[in-house]
Design brief:
The structure holds 2 protein chains of 2 kinds. Chain A is mainly alpha-helical. Helix content of chain A is 72%, strand content 3%. By secondary structure, chain B is mostly helical. Chain B folds into 2 domains: 14-289, ABC transporter involved in vitamin B12 uptake, BtuC (Orthogonal Bundle), CATH 1.10.3470; 312-410, no CATH class. The chains are: A mainly alpha, B mainly alpha.
């Protein structure tokens, strides 16, 4: 019971973090058809900018400034770089952002070194939110989840309850028509891209203080986020929320389970035979928890290739 | 006429590749082996994006699989299994083909950007699983073995490895080229251009894609096993995303629309990393910058630009053009110098050694050494020099670029826009 509750809490907070990053990615894709490969790099950039700023001006200034700077960088990319390759098709847009991701990672290594930097939450936030079964649950995890929840609500209200949201959704559905009605669609695109990048930057700034901040955090999270959008279906916010939570929960439960294929075979009396085979058979689920999201993706591809909430291919 | 000239050109190149290496040093021979392997890898990768319109971000997986398959076969040969050493890459081919069939079945369920993401995820699957499977991938340290002699050839010298690699790369490269001429190769092109129509003609596009994917991974496996033969060792880092990234960079800088374009990119990048990787730690950053610049200004890559010039060479007025190109070259060199100076300065100033020097100097900003001179980090000259280089080079390049594009426009075609867009195999 203890394990189930702790794992659920961890899984939901991690899932919400994944959602913070994948929301921007899927928003941008749904609108412009551009898969921003550098999106996870924006997440990493957010963490490093927050680290650099917070070491001078304090933690909260870092959290506030990082998304703004990352958002501006995102806008610049959308304004000055993407239009140049637009004529050459989506493949070139994807490749351009792929190159940007590489450059951002290398620039971070250049300025901050290959090793993790010491980006920490302020001491005042290092307390336990509550104790459960004798174990303290860190408040900061709840904080990460809370930021994501607030962000999702704000985004949802903005998109469905305001005039701006109507224009954005119109621009997503029929850009030419929305433009003909007098809306500045290129500006809308730029701001959506900037907002998506800023959300990733915010996620990085918040999560970097809890998880390790190192030059690999971009690609590590990026791969999981890509799995999320494949599972959830690109362009669907709801889909990416469901997929994020699903992957968060699966990963956090897998860390604590010592199941293996051999113990599964043990249920039908083949346990000893499977254990004698070794290899894949005796691999514990906990030791391959990093593999779980990919396995989940393969299963979803088999069962429902379009993703959980995606439209048919 | 053109066919004969091309054949002669290829024969001359082949003669050079055969005759020159014995006179080169060990380091160069090793570099040539790496260039050949990278070329085959890039050619196999380009079968997917250049021919079938499928962009894979996870080809490291099949490169690694090929390497490990070859190593296991070599270990078996060491234990007395009678198998000729020169045919070891066959193990990589078979392993690449089998894994490619399975992975391709999943990956080609989706097309467009999804395909790219799924291939990336499959490579990460291998990368995260490999260190856990001690028996197959040797854990974190990997596995290693020895090349066994075969019928008088010891495979002890680099030169023998070079000729073995050359033979395999040539066979596979020519095979790939011949493949593009077959009806099935044409079908691959059709898949890129209009998948809907191919399906309408009665082909199962999913099966065709799986087969193309498997052919590509098979040759990637051969490239991986050639590297295993040359290095005699491999570990799970072969599955890492930077291996996949390398081949993407090389292919597109070289030009994915031209058959031999990827070879140009692979040769240039591998050669440069052989020459400069000792001098700088920022080599990957430069690669990324080159890649982004190529994407922005010459989307068809070096090969595409070369091909364009070859095609129109009779209409070109080289007297006016060569001056412009020379000017553009000067601008490019100035920009490069400025960018390299800035990058290396940052690398020094933010490096650990400089942090130690600062501590020793009591927190001040001591001078640092770069390019054989001493620079003051707070000095104006230190920052003015790269900025002047960048601004001057930028001004020259922008104005020459305008002239060059005016020149091409007067010819009715520009090398920039002549690049056909690469479609991503149907709608996303």
């Amino acid at each position: 019971m203890e394990f189930a509750i702790i794992s659920t809490l961890n899984g939901v907070t991690y899932g919400l973090l994944l959602f913070m990053v994948s929301a921007g990615l899927t928003l941008i894709f749904g609108m412009m058809g551009v898969l921003n490969f550098a999106h996870a790099s924006f997440y990493m950039l957010g963490a490093y900018i927050a680290y650099a700023v917070s070491s001078i001006f304090g933690f909260w200034v870092g959290i506030a400034v990082a998304p703004i700077i990352v958002g501006l960088i995102g806008m610049a990319v959308e304004r000055f770089l993407l239009p140049r390759v637009h004529a050459h098709g989506h493949a070139h847009e994807l490749l351009l952002t792929f190159g940007l991701a590489l450059i951002i990672e290398e620039l971070i290594k250049l300025f901050f070194g290959d090793f993790p930097v010491n980006y920490q939450m302020p001491g005042g936030m290092r307390f336990s939110a509550f104790s459960i079964f004798g174990a303290d649950y860190p408040f900061y995890r709840i904080f990460i989840g809370g930021v994501a929840a607030v962000m999702f609500t704000a985004l949802w209200v903005l998109l469905t309850r305001t005039r701006t949201g109507i224009v954005v959704r119109a621009a997503e559905r029929l850009p030419a028509m929305a433009e003909a009605l007098g809306h500045n669609i290129p500006m809308v695109f730029m701001f959506v891209f900037g907002t998506g990048a800023a959300l990733a930057g915010l996620a990085g700034a918040v999560a970097g203080a809890f998880y390790p901040t190192n030059p690999n955090m971009g690609i590590e999270l990026g791969v999981i986020v890509f799995v999320v959008v494949v599972v959830g279906g690109l362009g669907s916010l709801k889909g990416s929320l469901v997929a994020s939570l699903l992957i968060g929960l699966f990963s956090s439960f897998a860390v604590g389970l010592d199941w293996s294929l051999a113990s599964l075979m043990g249920l039908v009396g083949l346990g000893d035979w499977a254990r004698s085979l070794g290899g894949l058979m005796t691999l514990k689920l906990s030791s391959i928890s990093a593999t779980i999201p990919f396995a989940l993706m393969l299963i979803v591809l088999l069962v429902r290739p379009a993703g959980l909430m995606g439209e048919r291919n | 006429m053109a066919a004969i000239r091309n054949t002669l050109l290829l024969a001359a190149l082949l003669a050079l590749l055969i005759a020159v290496p014995p006179f080169l040093g060990l380091g160069w021979q090793n570099a040539l082996v790496n260039i050949l392997i990278a070329s085959l890898f890039a050619l196999a990768f380009n079968l997917l994006i250049g021919q079938a319109g499928l962009l894979s971000f996870g080809h490291a997986a099949y490169f690694g699989i090929g390497a490990f398959a070859a190593l296991h076969l070599m270990i078996a040969i060491e234990d007395g299994f009678p198998f000729p050493t020169p045919l070891v890459p066959l193990a990589g081919a078979v392993a690449g083909l089998l894994i490619g069939l399975i992975a391709g079945y999943f990956a080609t369920m989706r097309s467009g950007v999804y395909f790219a993401l799924v291939t990336l995820a499959i490579a990460e699957l291998f990368h995260s699983l490999a260190p856990r499977l001690e028996a197959v991938f040797g854990g974190e340290s990997g596995i290693s073995t020895m090349r066994m002699p075969w019928s008088g050839i010891t495979f002890g010298s680099m030169l023998e490895i070079y000729y073995l690699t050359l033979a395999w790369v040539l066979i596979c490269g020519l095979g790939l080229w011949a493949y593009t001429r077959t009806p099935f190769g044409r079908l691959t092109l059709a898949l890129r251009d209009n998948e809907q129509r191919v399906r309408f003609l009665g082909y199962s596009t999913h099966s065709v894609k799986v087969i193309v994917f498997a052919v590509s991974t098979m040759l990637t496996g051969v490239a991986g096993s050639l590297q295993a033969i040359s290095n005699e060792t491999a570990n799970y880092s072969l599955f890492a995303s930077d291996v996949s990234a390398q081949v993407v960079l090389q292919t597109f800088v070289g030009g994915s629309t031209v058959f031999f374009g990827p070879v140009i990119g692979a040769a240039i990048f591998t050669l440069f990393s052989f020459l400069v990787s000792d001098l700088t730690r920022s080599w990957v950053l430069y690669q990324g910058l080159i890649f982004v610049l190529v994407m922005l200004y010459a989307p068809s890559g070096i090969g595409g630009v070369l091909q364009h010039h070859l095609r129109t060479r009779r209409q070109l007025d080289w007297r006016s053009l060569s001056g412009l190109y020379l000017l553009a070259l000067v601008g490019g060199v100035l920009i490069t110098a400025g960018a390299v100076f800035l990058t290396e300065t940052v690398a020094v100033l933010f490096g650990e050694e400089y942090a130690v020097a600062r501590r020793n100097a009591g927190g001040g900003l001591p001078d640092y050494q770069l390019f054989g001179a001493s620079w003051n980090p707070a000095g104006i000259l230190t920052w003015l020099l790269p900025l002047v280089l960048l601004a001057g080079g930028g001004a020259i390049t922008v104005s020459t670029r305008r002239h060059i594009s005016a020149f091409w426009n007067s010819k009715g075609q520009s090398p920039d826009t002549s690049a056909k867009p690469i479609s991503l195999g149907g709608a996303a």
